[in-house]
Design a protein that fits this description.
The protein is an alpha+beta fold. It has two domains: 35 residues, no CATH class; 76 residues, Glutaredoxin (3-Layer(aba) Sandwich). Helix content is 37%, strand content 22%. The protein has a four-stranded mixed sheet with strand order 4-3-5-6, with helices on both faces. A two-stranded antiparallel sheet has the order 1-2. The relative contact order is 0.15.
Length: 124
Amino acid sequence: MKDPFRHPATILVVAGATVVVGVAVARSRRKRLKNRKPKKVLPEASGVHLYGAQWCPACMKLKEDLDDREIPFTFHDIDTDTKADTFVMQQSDEGIIPVTTVNGTVFMGYTPDEIENAYRSLLT
């Protein structure tokens, strides 16, 4: 039997009634992201490219981590670059950022170790 408290849920109290929402959404979103195939990669995406926004803490932390690990990359701000914004939306309907590509391989979210491994494998 599955643990009913294993998955995150949002609990709302509306007019004295407690409503649990988000469990099915969280499960389906995880499954969708896990089974997602990378979509179209921009032509200039050889090397390391980071797609994000200046206001995004995870994007800024990933930028800092890539700099600290001495991984050269190009940053594409989705707020000022419409091609980058379109690319991010193609990768995830929710527009999850940061999105990083390493020679066409797409990494969603804050994944500095996976990005570094992919980059280092290019060098060998």
